[in-house]
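Worked problem 6 (solution included).
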Amino acid sequence: MSTDKIITLGAFAFYMLVMILIGVFYSKKTKNNEDYFLGGRNLGGWTAALSAQASDMSGWLLMGLPGAVYLAGTGEVWIAIGLLIGTILNWYIVSSRLRKYTIVAGNSLTIPSFFQNRYRDKFGVIKIVAAIIIAIFFAVYTASAFSSGAKLFATLFGDSIDNAYTIGLIIAAVVILVYTLLGGFRAVCTTDFIQGMLMLVAILAVPIVAYALMTWHGGFSEALADHGVTSPRNYMNFFTNTDGSGISANSIISNLAWGLGYFGMPHIIIRFMAIKNEQEVKKSRKIAIVWVILSLAAACFVGLVARGFLTTELTDANSETSFIRLIQQVFSSNYVLMFIGGIFLCGILAAIMSTADSQLLVTSSAISEDIFKGVIKKDASEKKSLLVGRIAVLVVAVIAFVIALDPNSSIMGLVSDAWAGFGAAFGPVVLLALFWKRSNLAGAVAGMATGALTVIIWDYIPLVGGELLKNTTGLYSLAIGFPIALIVNVIVSLVTKKPSDEIVEEFESIKTLEI
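Solution. The predicted structure is:
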């Protein structure tokens, strides 16, 4: 193995060891389910903001999105614009009210338990449906994170280690499992804070340095032309494809629709529930939005710069490694730069780990709190419930591992499917539960099931001449599933029994509540 790879491997080993030690530290502070799943509702502004955004921006931010921009140019930035709008709306509309409502509604520790308490579901139907949806779609989402880790390892060490993809997959899964199982929510949020800072530094510094080197003796358009871009003007146009044709309205709508997903992402909105107080919510909001603006803009910039800088042209199959290869090429001239490059590569690892750990933890809470303790064994002890949660983490991780075993799986594709599933199933329910007092249990369950099934049918069942609807229409399933689920929720709520006076009074009390 070459010296640069040994240095990079050393940086990775050190970084992973630090993450595991954080898990060990917080394992001693985890005494009950509220500690394990919500950190005692005691998150500060900085930790809450960076944890929420780091758990959101997974390997797709540093691999999937730059890869898409690398191939197709700035026409792909509509996804980033949609995500930015969604982030802003989520923090301003949902964060504060959700935090208050979950405390008033039976001190809910999970999103499914909030739904049950909000609608006074005596039989736990909505909790079970929500928990099942979480387990299904988070298995896919976690697989995308594991696949990102494996591709990172294979790209770096594939020429030196046999079966590098599989080995990388095992390493990523094991390290994430260890600190998630040990420390719970506080460990996850603390590691996410560190990883969020590292991700931001890496994604800002690398393309800026590469751009400076690339344009030292010429322009950016010239660099693109020298590296296979036939029309730099089209490549840099938000409204045209690289061949000069206009980007379709369906494509823009589909990409902007990614923003709708935020309202239904359990691993993101659960951070709102854990923030210490209203002042910290306001602080978190500002920090998170600035972080997102910088990181999304930088991720798109990475793809553009990589296209004009990399000496080897990438294909559809390996375009998602553009950021990795950019780091390798920029930081390769001496040992000091190699070590710095290794740290920046840890930023990619950070993006991967910060999302997978959050997803596993939310899955754990859904199964242990909402299904086991909420339905199967209501008198279960805290100790037994925690054990079931940790077993659930292990099971979902194994399923995700199996899904990610295919080295040709697309990071962006896996994230897209899971994002649509959560956004369509939970997004309308969350918004109506928080802001419409006429919303009831029947409407919420119907809307949730409709959203999830619409995405599954749209993305996985060939209905038109053996083709999937997403391919024949060119529309993202979330753009279809979200409005359909919202409409079904409203209609069913209106034609069924009104909420009780108790539910309405609790809803109205949130307006003046200060916590």
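Discussion: The chain has a mean pLDDT of 85.
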